Amino acid sequence: MKKRTKSSSPIKILAGAFKKSRGGLIQFKNGDIKLNMVGEDEFHLNVEEMAKAGLHFGHKTSKVHPKMEPYLYGVRNAIHIIDLEKSKEKLVQALEFVKNLISEKKILLVIGTKIQSRELVKNFVKDCNLPYINERWLGGTFTNFEIIKKRIDYFKNLEKKKAEGQLEKYTKKERAEIEKELKDLERKFGGIKNLEKLPDAIFVLDMEKDSLAVKEATERGVKVIGISDTNVNPNLADYPIPASDDAVSSIQYILEKFKEVILKVKPK
Q1: Per-residue confidence band for 268, with pLDDT thresholds at 50, 70 and 90
Q2: Which residues pair with 184 in a beta bridge?
Q3: Residues 36 and 126 placed together within one structural domain of the fold
């Protein structure tokens, strides 16, 4: 097997660099892990690019969920390595589902409440014009949607009163209290204030952090797309994506692929 030259800037996977054979095989220099390379498909997915983005980095072996074992390739420095061929296969299925969902003008709600995901979510939904939740999931958002909807209507009515100058009749102290309430309502409901009914599907960036959202969606028959790290049960999602849910680059890569598909098929 021919080695890469220093000028070729080999990708680092964990502590070892890999090299590529003529047959498209990637492996560590010590030969202990190999990843089959595949060509780009209609979604322009490529295992090498996925490796660069760090989708394959799992958690420590002690935290593995038994249901994730079929998606694991091996272990490196006590950390599980996710099989990127299987990640690609599952990501394709998720993208196909989203492509059909959006083309049919159905609703996709994006959920990412982990600190490192919040800004990524805001930028993503802004570009794709999707509802979202990037703060704490409120219990009952789906299972008691009628009650949540009343709070959203109250929030929108308060915003309308402010825009029309109706708050000027209140004292300075009262206006300050209303402004404080508006900020709190914006934080809780700002991303879903235009949601008139339950979404058709949710896209969850961390199924452990937002396990309650996944549970409520399942109870109400809402489809679940979810990034499934090695410590998560992938069977909780209808469309699991085996990948790191901690690495910002991993989340960003997946969001970019979703964005490409959504902008391509979203009705103008």
Answers
A1: low
A2: none
A3: no
